[in-house]
Amino acid sequence: MSKPTIMVNLNRCYGCWTCAVSCKVGNGLPDDTWRITVRTLGNGAGIDRPYGQWPKLKMSWMPVYGENCIMCAHRTKDGDAPFCTKNCPSKALIFGDLDDPASEASLALEELRKKGCQVFELPEWEKSRKGIVYAKR
Ligand code: SF4
Ligand code: SF4
């Protein structure tokens, strides 16, 4: 696999944190260590705090991969998916090779582009893992 990545379909993420917990449990991480967290895009006050005035409240979520994410290389070398992508209940996370146009990640990204989604990576100052690709309507 020449360009392994995780494609994050933000349209599907509903902020359940299963990705983060499955990474922690699967990789046996200590309590204070996370390799992926889920940011609430709301009023900035914390997890699951919406912005706006009742009844017009709004929030969405963004999984953020830390620089310590190893992209589950110990699993993917044997063809298994990373814990986070495998356990995401909404299929918002797709692991694959972006250099292979037939990979699941490439096909999903192409489909989202056709639907008019914006495709981007997080900026340098986020200090997140490089190579994670996001798509959002
Ligand atoms: S990416 Fe999937 S598992 Fe993670 S918070 Fe979003 S819906 Fe839940
Ligand atoms: S790819 Fe593996 S190490 Fe990285 S966040 Fe997902 S489960 Fe954790």
Question: How many helical elements?
Answer: 4
| CATH architecture call | 2-Layer Sandwich
Number of separate structural domains: 1
Number of strands: 8
Strand order of the largest sheet: 6-1-8-7
CATH topology: Alpha-Beta Plaits
What is the multimeric organization of the chains shown? single chain
Strand/helix succession: EHEEEEHHEHEE
SS-based class:
alpha+beta
Task: Please tell me about this protein's structure.
The strands form three sheets. The protein has a four-stranded mixed β-sheet with strand order 6-1-8-7. Strands 2-5 form a two-stranded antiparallel sheet. The two termini are 28 Å apart. The protein has 137 residues and is an alpha+beta fold. The protein has helices at residues 18-26, 73-76, 83-87, 104-114; strands at 4-9, 36-41, 51-53, 56-58, 60-65, 93-97, 118-120, 133-136. It has one domain (4-136): Alpha-Beta Plaits (2-Layer Sandwich). 24% of the residues are buried. It has four helices and eight strands; from the N terminus they run E-H-E-E-E-E-H-H-E-H-E-E. A hairpin with a 2-residue loop joins strand 3 (51-53) and strand 4 (56-58). The mean pLDDT is 96. Helices cover 21% and strands 26% of the residues. One iron/sulfur cluster binds at residues 13-19, 38, 61, 63, 88, 90, 92-93.
